[in-house]
Amino acid sequence: MMEQYILKEQTRHGTSLFPLACYRMEQAENFTVPLHWHEETEILFLEQGSFHYSCNMQEQVIAAPAFVVFPSGSIHSLTASQNPSANSLVFRLDMLQFCGCDHIQSGLLEPLLEGRISFPPLILPDHPCYCEFCRLYRDAFVSAEKGSLPSHIIVKARLLEILALLYEHDCLTPAAESTLRPELLSNAKLLIRYMQEHYSEKLTVSQMAELTGLNEQYFCRYFRRLFGKTFTGYLNEIRLEQAAGALLQSDKRVIDIAMEHGFDHVGYFIRCFRRYTGMTPQAYRKSQNSDMDSSK
């Protein structure tokens, strides 16, 4: 389901006792994870397909298999095609800390937590660590899905082994400075959060410009620079993602779902939905429900 791919900043990944969550993204068709951010680190395994991702407005196109690491606080998005399959571990780095201070804590974990060193942003099959990294990640992911205390111990152990592997191969490097100025990054996060929380309301360029303290004309150029698309285009993506989830989770009429998700005209909603998913809302509901029935 497309709604699984919206990882909002305010979403809790895991629990307070075990702040880690695992996600699977498998689609027969293309899928998109809209621009978003969260405080947790994310290790994303691109298992099959072709992917276009951005991190802090730096874009890259890559074919699977590959690992991508999104640092804590980074603004990122993902578009997938060619029968894509991917999964990810999203976790707070501080879950790996020790109660007592030793040279592992002071020499490795603290620099990671403070952002002085970072994971490699991309690990491809020709990377010397790839095979072992892949084994450790898969073991951690499978264990994370089980959810028991013994499996959580395995997850934590495998993540520490991943750090040891990267450290041994000198892959933990001084963190690169973001190409975005701090105020631009802060404004981008403010806009993302506000739009995700208020997408069902009538939002205008004037409101968003006032929120960021910019005039309307400059805001439009500013927004396109930050997000690579227009304000209306990005807002509609959020609305369509949420509407797609509502289509599967309820039997409400299409017109009611459209109105509840910020679309004043059902005809416009259907046209946008068809462009976004390749099918009408009715066809999407039918095909996704058929897929779920066949998998039972």
Plain-language structure description:
The protein is α+β, with helices and mostly antiparallel strands and 296 residues long. It has 2 domains: 2-174, Jelly Rolls (Sandwich), CATH 2.60.120.280; 182-295, Arc Repressor Mutant, subunit A. The protein contains 10 helices and 9 strands. Strands 1, 2, 3, 4, 5, 6 and 8 form a 7-stranded antiparallel sheet that branches. It is globular and about 60 Å long. It starts with 19 loop residues before the first strand and ends with a helix.
Keywords:
transcription regulation, Homeodomain-like_sf, Arc Repressor Mutant, subunit A, globular, AraC-like DNA-binding protein, two-stranded antiparallel sheet, seven-stranded antiparallel β-sheet, 296 residues, alpha+beta, 21% strand, disordered N terminus, HTH_AraC
